[in-house]
Specification:
Layout lengths: L3 E8 L2 E8 L4 E8 L7 H16 L1 H65 L30 E5 L5 E5 L29 H7 L3 H16 L1
Antiparallel strand pairs: 1-2, 2-3, 4-5
């Protein structure tokens, strides 16, 4: 019996397939799980025929399902073995990576020690950096102008009593330096004694004595 594909269309979650045979004239329509529109016509016909065999002979369908289950179990065991092998390889790779890191650390330490020995042998040790003190320009000291003394005329007394004026040359100016001014200690001024009344009486002449003297002088003049 040869079947041909008559119709196929997709419903929600299922694909409905119809097949037909001319001799004898038979027609079957079954639903397949999922979207099977992309499959070929032969694949869809075989899927429908498999459903028909299961319906007509359940025993053969059970045997076939058992065979399919055995195949699936074998594939699962093989997958588990592959997974275990991958885990072992991963652990081995991890150990190799850790060992590689340890060797790299030892190599870096060894290279650092070699570099230190080379620097000491060649005398290329870095000298400590000494910070140079900052120098500020000193401010110039104030310059004081020398004070020139005014020339004073010197006088000499001649034998004839006429003073001779001699102009002396001014002395060379000496540079003056600022000296600190020392404050003179303040002393109390001496107290002025006031004359007493008895002393004033003795000092002032009495009018009687002056009159007597004038009379005496007048008498002498008359004589």
């Amino acid at each position: 019996m040869e079947f041909v594909l008559v119709n196929k269309f997709f419903r929600v979650g299922k694909t409905e397939v119809s097949i037909q045979c001319d001799k004898p004239l038979t027609f079957f329509t079954r639903e397949l799980e999922g979207d099977r529109l992309g499959d070929t016509d032969e694949t869809l016909i075989e899927a429908v025929k498999e459903i028909l065999r299961t319906e007509l002979d359940p025993t053969s369908a059970i045997v076939k399902n058992q065979e399919q289950l055995a195949k699936t179990t074998a594939a699962l065991e093989q997958a588990n073995q592959l997974m275990e092998g991958m885990q072992k390889v991963s652990l081995h790779n991890t150990d190799d990576i850790e060992e590689l890191f340890a060797r790299l650390e030892v190599l870096e330490k060894h290279n650092g020690i070699d570099h230190e020995h080379e620097d000491k042998a060649e005398g290329r040790e870095e000298a400590p950096h000494v910070a140079e003190p900052e120098t500020h320009p000193a401010e110039p000291a104030p310059v004081t102008q020398p004070v020139q003394p005014e020339p004073q005329p010197a006088t000499e007394v001649a034998t004839n009593g006429v003073p001779n004026v001699v102009v002396s040359e001014p002395a060379p100016a000496q540079p003056t330096t600022e000296q600190p001014v020392a404050e003179a200690p303040t002393q109390p001024a001496p107290a002025v004694e006031q004359p007493t009344e008895s002393e004033t009486e003795h000092e002032i002449p009495t009018p009687t004595s002056e009159a007597s003297t004038s009379e005496n002088n007048g008498g002498s003049n008359n004589e």
